[in-house]
Design a protein that fits this description.
With 137 residues, the protein is α+β, with helices and mostly antiparallel strands. Helix content is 26%, strand content 49%. The chain has a single domain (12-135), classed as Nuclear Transport Factor 2, Chain: A, CATH 3.10.450.
């Protein structure tokens, strides 16, 4: 994806920040796919609020628990499109793609859009602060 593809069309302003955030987003995808709790712990801010597909709010500890316990396993994360916006120490990513796996023993397969808000930590780099997932047509 080219940086001109994000929703605000800032044409790649702060290109180093955009590329670093894109890399963080993709590390998050790999960590979800492998249930790498240590990597997820580093990438997710302690204040995370995640709005799930059921409309409920979840915390970082909730997210780490489903991976650690095996309640959620992902077997597929296929990115179709990734848009990135950076404004100072705040970043937003828009992921469009297909995810597949199991949650609480039930299989799932869905084309989804994640909107993720990130904060730049001087020591840790980009960390996920808020996220929302919903179905995509």
């Amino acid at each position: 994806m080219d940086t001109d593809d994000h929703p605000t069309g800032n044409g790649g302003a702060d290109l180093p920040g955009v590329e670093a955030l894109r890399a963080a987003e993709r590390r998050l995808q790999r960590a979800q796919l492998s249930s790498d709790v240590a990597a997820l712990d580093r990438l997710i801010d302690d204040r995370l609020v995640f709005t799930g597909p059921d409309g409920r709010l979840y915390s970082k500890q909730d997210d780490l628990h489903v991976h650690r316990s095996g309640q959620q396993t992902m077997t597929r994360v296929d990115e179709e499109h990734l848009a990135v916006l950076v404004a100072g120490g705040t970043g937003v990513t828009w992921f469009l793609g297909t995810v597949e796996g199991t949650l609480a023993g039930e299989p799932f397969l869905a084309r989804v859009r994640y909107t993720r808000t990130w904060t730049l930590d001087k020591n840790e780099g980009w960390r996920l602060l808020a996220a929302h997932v919903g179905p995509a047509d």
